[in-house]
Amino acid sequence: MFRRLTSSSPELLAIELDGEPVSVPGGISVAAAMLYLDASPTRQTPVSGSPRAPFCMMGACFECLMEIDGNPDQRACQVEVTAGMRIKRQNEADHCEQVW
Amino acid sequence: MKQEYQLLVIGAGPAGMAAAQIAARHGVEVALVDEQPQPGGQIYRNVDSGPLADVSMLGKDYVFGKPLVQAFRHSGLEYHAGASVWYLDKNLQVGILKDGESYQLGAQRIIVATGAQERPMPIPGWQLPGVMTAGAGQILLKSAALAPEDGVVLAGSGPLMLLIAWQYLQAGVRIRALLDTTPRGNLLKALRHLPRAFAASDYLFKGLRLVTAIRHARTPCYKAVSELRAGGDERLQWVEFKAAGKSHRIDTQLLMLHQGVIPDLHIAQAASCETDWSEAQQCWRPRIDDWGETSQSGVFVSGDGAGISGARAADLNGQIAGLRVARQLGFIDEASCNRLAQPVRRAQQRHLAIRPFLDAYYRVADSFLAPPDDTMVCRCEEISAGDIRAVIELGCIGPNQAKAFTRCGMGPCQGRFCGSTVEQIFARERGLSMRDICGYSARPPLKPITLGQLAKTKNVEET
Q: In this predicted complex, what is the ipTM?
């Protein structure tokens, strides 16, 4: 869905998405990396399990929540990708059921 | 971080950078905190530090920010990047989260320069993957050098819509359609502001150049678009709308929405600053004096957060607040403060001259401010406009009570994306003016913080 324009930093990093190895450009946010991978949806909502993806990219909407290196509910647009990062989509409806 | 600062500036956009530097120049001990990893705010995001090989495709106004950001970097000011303000009270006690550690500190003066956010533009289906804000598109360009691969539909109204259309054309992106939601009658109503706008004619010419370039590229444009809906199975697949009395449908996997920006008031409201409704700009603004000081003594708001006026005015606005703080803390006298502020105010007047015309021309249609029943208003808790209207009929009197009835506004975005819409629905359904509507209260934590981080907050005086 998104392509990379000519960049001053063209290197790719190896990371994991839901346990699968993928390559993404370095120096970008996790949310941008997900859009680069066309990995939508990146989350399922707690109320109805509906699919969501990054929306505002500036940390205000909280749609881009993902689990990053074991930490849940991280705003993916506020975290920069690093080599070896482990990223997981959150299914928040399932999580709520488990808690109850 | 120190236990107390003379001046704490929140936000490293043009207003914050200008305020911090001018105060420091007059001897004030300043620190600037900002949530992003690099200075520049949103408008100058990554202007000197991004991955785009050719930033000129983003336009001259963007590149204008490069020397501003570089001057800030070389100023030697205490600057904390990646630092969120999660707490602020009227005693000017501040809670900051940085690198996973929480700090509590105080300041004698605070300048809130957190800028603006996109005006929520709720349409049926806006929650689908593939729908984003135009601002998101710009951030992807600036900070990740990413552009739409298979085309994009742009929908909405305002100068930033034109700007991103132009930027995408420079980047070789196919714009499938530009759906202009500016209501048909607006131009006529805006004309009376045009004489004043000629004092800032460069803005007008800039706009005309953007429009001409977009037309020249033969971008399919639709005017006075209404009844906009996004649809698809699990992700965006099409957009429907009405224009010139006809119904249209366009297949697309990417839609970017934009209907202007509104002040980000969250931090100011947390400090109990009073706000006033601006009928002209259709948004809340903090109640401030000539220098930007709010109803809360010692708390200033500068830049777009004080009222949408653009990047150039924000820089000048920040200087005025910085000067006032220097005066209040005794570093310059009253006469010097006024003398130094005078040319800044004069320069600012020119940039402000375009606003009444822009505000009137781009005034958002009622059907977007208070959308149809099947529109999801609260994305976090999945509450529709119809749900809100239903509880109003049951006797719910305002947005804060709607939280108790429906959980609307109680999700992680803390009402940033539903507050303005919920207020508009209440005002219309109850026949009240916006002044009579009490918006969501802003309570800490203002940004995410874990209980563990909270419990380990460093009261800097103890270290």
A: 0.96
